Amino acid sequence: MKNLRVLAVAAMLGLGPVAVAQQAETPLSYYLPAEVSYNSSIPTPKDILGYNVGEWHASHDQLAMYMRQMANLSDRITITEYARTHENRPLYLLTITSPKNHQNLEQIKQKHRQLSDPSASGKLNIKEMPAVVWMGYSVHGNEPSGSNASLLAVYHLAAAQGPEIDKLLDETIILIDPSINPDGMNRFASWVNSHRSKNLITDPNSAEFDEAWPRGRTNHYWFDLNRDWLPLQHPESKGRLAKFHEWKPNVLTDHHEMGTNATFFFQPGIPSRNNPLTPENNFKLTQKIGTFHAKALDKIGSFYYTEESYDDFYYGKGSTYPDVNGSVGILFEQASSRGHAQESVNGVLTFPFTIRNQFTTTLSTLEAVQAMREELLAHQRDFYKQVQNESKKASTKAYVFGSELDRARAFHLAEIIKQHQIEVYRPKESFKINNFTYTPENAYIIPTDQPQYRLIEAMFERRTTFQDSLFYDISAWTFPLAFDLDHAALSSRNFKSSQLGQKVEDLKLPEGEVVGGKSDYAYTFEWHGYYAPRALNQLMDRGINTRVATDKFTTAEGKKYDYGTILIPVAGQSVNAEALHQIMQEVAQQNALKVYAMNTGFNPLGIKLGSPMVLSLKQPKVMMLIGDGVNSYDAGEAWHLMDDRFGMRPVLIKTNDFNRSEISKYNVVVMAEGSYSNISKDKLRNWVLQGGTVVGMGTAAKWLSDNGIGNITFTKSEPDTAAQKAYADMANSEGAQVIGGAIFETKLDLTHPLAYGYTDEQLPIFRSNTLFMERSKSPYANPVMYTANPLMAGYISKPNLQKVKNTAAVDVSTIGAGKVIAMPDNPNFRAFWYGTNKLFLNSIFFGQIISGNSARAEEAH
């Protein structure tokens, strides 16, 4: 019987698949450097967990227990809980260094942070300063070799003995984040452990390697946390970033996995795909650090590659965010066993083998950081000195953004910016730019002359030219466009530092109120506020009757009300006037809204409150289809928005269960990007005919079109008729036609229910696909259209740019008594695309009131 070390060597040498019998134990000696001795009083991972590393996939509770125990047992380790996940699992950061350094840790931390302060960094003696390295493991829960390697890393750093480890701990502060995604890690470990045979099965067809939807890559709401470093929409990311800036590490490692048939990758990535805001020296340091990884992997005989895949363009990734903060981010990608042992083109790839490569590069990183300590410290110091010079010479002296009618949206952008250690101010006085008046109450100013200048530029710039046409992730993420806020770049001609008012320290959601006291007639609130849908849903939850105004009106006091104003009559409610007033006060305060008490329904201008143009609303009963075929990211973003942010209760129904489910109790169906071939199109169509609203996004809209549910038309792709092209150019040529993620301008029909709450006809939309929807023949069924010059930021090929011009961004069809709302784009992208959330929510709340005359009509049959 071959033990796992033999199997790993077989895989490493590219031998054919090896039959795996009952798993043999993998001793610590397989992983640990032979030349190091270890303190026998420090327990091994097996002593605490009861099994050898790699024999089972550690669950998160086991990993957390091990880390707490090691912190209790070693004077080299302290542990801090920095956040809790959506499923209430703790996230830990271990600080590992010499006992001497632990005694002066706060002083070391404060001095290290001075490297980012040019006024103080020149006085620092970097020869005497320890370097700081952050090691982050398994942000994707089903890429477990990283988190399991952290068991070995912590053991090694706690138990290793000798002058070399003592010197390392004296000269280095090591921060270990053992599981960046506890919820996903636990989901995956549970799957593979429960499908593990006593005699290991290596056949890729085994259920062990085919985890159930949504799989363990993502967090509780099915978000990719490796894209959340910049948007900061989840507790895992918010807590981690606070610790990152508390320490500002010199190097941050990000341990991932890739396809089973690959080998091992370490950065740098493809040179032409670096973000231009990242200094060239960062790439050189990454290359130099890579020589240490190559040497270490050569020593154990592991194959690897570098500079041929991946990129460092999007700053929302864990290995790229450090690069714009004076640090060096390093991505590792290990071929994944996706279980305990699996056949690959290189032989049987075992879980212990994957762990060993991650642990080996953990040690090589520490070796590199120690050897390059002064060089890395100098890079961080020089980075911020260079930034200071750049910011003083920059033509843009500040950015301003705000919203007159939706201060909650502006608040949330300011909230994100502040978490990135960027100074935020209120304007001292009101000023007007581009027909918008920025006031101390509705606006925020971000001066560019500050240490985070490059990150500010990364968040606000509109880049449309690029060195490369291929992107591993999105090519644009301009935040004020994502939030659909009025904003401007201020030059020295229209900005002076004297315009800065109060520095924002304690940022709070704007307070709501009921204006006019208790009413015995009615209350109203406009739909402009970001949380207006949440307020409406709260009222519906309490059984309060609500109505919506489908036209404008003006009161005798001169207050103008826009399309989509919500009306709450006092009479006919299940509660008395006193109780309703109390409810309205609570709803206003919780949702940053101004609610107005009305004393009459007679308005001198526009409709009256009893008009037929004021329609009664039914509470949405939402069913969202999930499961096999559905894009879990897009579904998770919709679920998170409805559940976590807006307090709704969408019922999640698996596509495999749809055909046998009783769906008449629901009046809205949400279909995220995906394939729905396993649901009954006739059942869905009949449900729509009876009055339901279906909202289809991305390829779900295309599926609705293909199956005759809605009169939706997509343009057909023209075949490439070129007689011959170079085979070597195929990947780049085809990749250049991908819209990986860019921002486009659309025009709204502000009178349409799907546009209620918007005040500007221009709406930036995020697009990441090549689905182009044709305009409806009905001029009233195109509430959102791409403009003739739509590109606002990001990359798109010239042919695709021509295709997207003047096409429909939203289409509304009528079938019988129901509606089909098609959106080729995702309005809820990564939870930070606040500006288009309202399109999605309006579809849910107001799809029921859209007139058949304003949609593509389709005869019921």
From TrEMBL:
Record's keyword terms, sorted: Carboxypeptidase, Hydrolase, Protease, Signal
Peptidase M14 domain span: 56-355
GO biological process: proteolysis
Keyword Hydrolase: yes
InterPro entries, A to Z: Class_I_gatase-like, Peptidase_M14
Molecular function terms from GO: metallocarboxypeptidase activity; zinc ion binding
Pfam families tied to this protein: Peptidase_M14
Cleaved signal peptide residues: 1-21
Similarity-based family: Belongs to the peptidase M14 family.
Protein name: Zinc carboxypeptidase
